[in-house]
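In the design runs reported in the main text, the only information available to the sequence generator was the tokenized backbone. The following block is the verbatim input for one such run; it is reproduced so that readers can re-run the procedure and compare outputs position by position.
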């Protein structure tokens, strides 16, 4: 074989080998894409960074106030759970419930109606119940008035009444109390405001004649010229609830870090928590077996009122 023919044969063999190698690499790339695409699609369900968790508070205060009162709580979680937590703010109940259920929010502080809605929507469950200053996981809703001529609930007919839409203490329970007293929503002028703080401002300024709020908030204004017209039966207190997607280990870390705080009995813990919101600075307890059923009873009242409206 001549040198020229030998070179041609070598070149041909090299070209065939190159084509086979390139074809194999291309097939491998296709296979990799085929397997990676479903994995990426599945990964889209994990909407939050697995190394960072989000906490939210049902917006019963203004965003600025929630940020100020709950940043110390987040700082505590970051120092004591071994995980990275961040505070996320929401302007309405619906958005927060949706985000808790889809995993964008890992855990949240909620009252009984929002918690009942989240449980009904996606099975979100309470991890810890907040304690009141009496050491129990319960509270009351109160209806306050600023009008001296209003001495009974029936005298609220035709008057402007403040509500925070969807709130247990500032909407659902007060509306139920009024209904049970023979006063329908059509018999009053409901004024829906954006937070319980805003309700108190409206009461103090005379913008509304009466409103329902959480008892702990009403106590902060005990020196003002406001009177209690009605007080509810005990209600299940605010609770820390977990998204269904929150890993069990992270859930337990959060519970362990918070359950050991005993501010009602330990002055050191009370001092450490003095910058926390009054809703959570009395500590927590693991909810008993009747806690969630009592939440769902309040949720049934919510559904009853929604159906009527």
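Verbatim output:
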């Amino acid at each position: 074989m001549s040198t020229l023919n030998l070179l041609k044969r070598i070149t041909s063999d090299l070209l065939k080998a190159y084509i086979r190698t390139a074809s194999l690499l291309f097939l491998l790339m296709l296979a990799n894409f085929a397997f990676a695409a479903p994995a990426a699609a599945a990964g889209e369900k994990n909407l939050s960074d697995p190394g960072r968790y989000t906490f939210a508070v049902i917006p019963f205060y203004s965003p600025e106030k929630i940020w100020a009162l709950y940043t110390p709580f987040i700082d505590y979680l970051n120092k004591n759970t071994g995980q990275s937590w961040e505070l996320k703010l929401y302007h309405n109940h619906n958005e927060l419930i949706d985000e808790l259920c889809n995993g964008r929010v890992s855990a949240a502080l909620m009252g009984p109606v929002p918690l009942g809605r989240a449980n009904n929507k996606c099975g979100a469950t309470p991890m810890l119940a907040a304690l009141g200053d009496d050491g129990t996981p319960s509270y009351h809703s109160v209806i306050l008035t600023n009008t001296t001529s209003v001495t009974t609930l029936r005298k609220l007919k035709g008057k402007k009444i403040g509500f925070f839409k969807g709130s247990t203490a500032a909407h659902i329970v007060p509306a139920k109390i009024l209904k049970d007293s023979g006063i329908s929503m059509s018999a009053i002028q409901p004024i829906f405001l954006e937070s319980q703080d805003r309700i108190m401002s409206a009461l103090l300024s005379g913008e509304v004649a009466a409103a329902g709020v959480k008892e702990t908030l009403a106590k902060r204004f005990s020196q003002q010229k406001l009177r209690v017209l009605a007080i509810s039966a005990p209600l299940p207190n605010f609770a820390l609830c977990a998204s269904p997607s929150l890993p069990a280990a992270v859930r337990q870390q959060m519970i362990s870090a918070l359950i050991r705080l005993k501010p009602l009995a330990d002055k050191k813990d009370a001092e450490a928590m003095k910058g926390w919101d009054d809703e959570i600075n009395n500590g927590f307890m693991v909810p008993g077996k009747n806690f969630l059923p009592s939440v769902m009873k309040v949720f049934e009242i919510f559904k009853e009122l929604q159906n009527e409206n």
